Amino acid sequence: MTDFDYDLFTIGAGSGGVRASRLAASYGAKVGVAEEYRVGGTCVIRGCVPKKFLVYASEYGHSFNDAKGYGWSADNVSFDWSKLIQNKDDEIDRLNGIYIRNLKNAGADIFQSRAVLKDNHTVHLAAENRDVTAEKILIATGGAPWTDESVPGHDLGITSNEAFHLDTLPKHVIVAGGGYIAIEFACIFRGLGCEVCLVYRGEDILRYFDTDVSVQVHAEMKRQGIRIITQSVFEKIEKLDGDVKRAHLTNGTHIDADLIFWAVGRKAATAGMGLEKAGVELDKSGAVVVDEFSKSSVDNIFAVGDVTNRVNLTPVAIREGAAFAETEFNNNSTKMDYTFIPKAVFSQPPVGTVGYAEHEARQKFDNVDIYKTNFRAMKNMLTGSEERVLMKLVVDGDTDRVLGCHIVGAEAAEMIQAIAIAVKAGVTKSQFDETVALHPTIAEELVTMREKFQPKY
Ligand code: NDP
Fold first, then answer.
1. Same domain (yes/no): 249, 178
2. Residue 439 annotated among the catalytic residues of the structure
3. How confident is the model at residue 455 (pLDDT cuts 50, 70, 90)?
4. In the structure, which protein residues have their CB atom closer than 6 angstroms to any atom of ligand 1?
């Protein structure tokens, strides 16, 4: 018998928090969960899921055009932003309901409230103005987009949080950033017919990815008419007449738009939660410092998901939450395995990638072989689209193991999920070669790359 109200109290009902809570409850723990916004968290409510709906919507913008090559007439198509947003919201409401039901069915108590730590066993529920106690506390509050407040007029821009609820589709959008969210939303808005300009501080967008991926995505975005300005940031933003905002850039130019969209990263949501008071160590970005079992510097306080700023992806948060519940409530010591996590950027065309980028592999392995191909997919022979596909394998020249696979092209995200199984299991390049191609597909090119790429130095 515990002297606490709960065996586990979880703060934050997103992907990681919900998974951990449900699993812990299924192992017999008495679980409470506090959520200040909506159960489902960033992924379901204002992240991956609604974003993917916008991606689907925007892909039709290209498809109507492409269909002409296949004999279809699609001349007077129109698009209704409000209808898309309403349909998207209905689906998000449905998913939100499922998440709430699943938590309740597992036996967890849900509190619609901000929760703040008073000490390492006491949680204050602001909405109810009362305290609850718990033997173990799980911080799963995720992250939030930030804007650069040093830029005068920064508050004239929005973040991804607001992008899902715009009243109207903007005509001209400026996106700041060169990461996942910037690239995905730039493509979404372009597919829906907006004029889009992306402003990125570095040289290569998606700089954490393989350089060939970065170059290919850049080229494809330009081909669609997205203007990309590199090595520049906002100097100031000012409001002109009507809805128009003017972004002054550090390269001395300015651009006008009716929507300015900050996509310059996300920060762990730890502010004002009483974590420091409870003795929980935070890193300099504000993320909770945890060990490999997601335990914080305080013995009974744990954290999973984006709030720990490890690998900020939904399936990772889910796995971390599950590993925590296994370890702490099922007597089954479990660590999250961070190797060979597949990743996708839902650009248009999308990116699918797993394992080492070429530059990472060259730092770690003595002999690295590269196989790559770049081609126009068969479908586009009739559409007239110049969109190209990139496929690249990074191979350990000593062992023949495939270290990385990188794809930019239609269905890249779908392909990489399957390829990741083989790559994680240690597949060799010879085994790729021994696999019979499936014709005619884009994916068949993955098993027909025979020539090592010879760089021209
Ligand atoms: P990212 O870290 O991917 O990108 C942030 C971008 O903002 C980078 O290009 C960065 O530049 C730039 N930046 C940072 N600070 C500044 C600044 N002060 N001024 C101008 N530019 C700046 O963050 P996102 O917000 O795009 O996404 C957050 C996280 O969410 C991702 O890391 C990912 O884990 C997750 N996510 C995953 C998705 C998916 O799986 N498809 C989709 C969306 C989000 P630089 O490159 O030079 O550092």
1. yes
2. yes
3. confident
4. 148, 176-182, 184, 200-202, 207, 233, 263-266, 312-313, 344-346
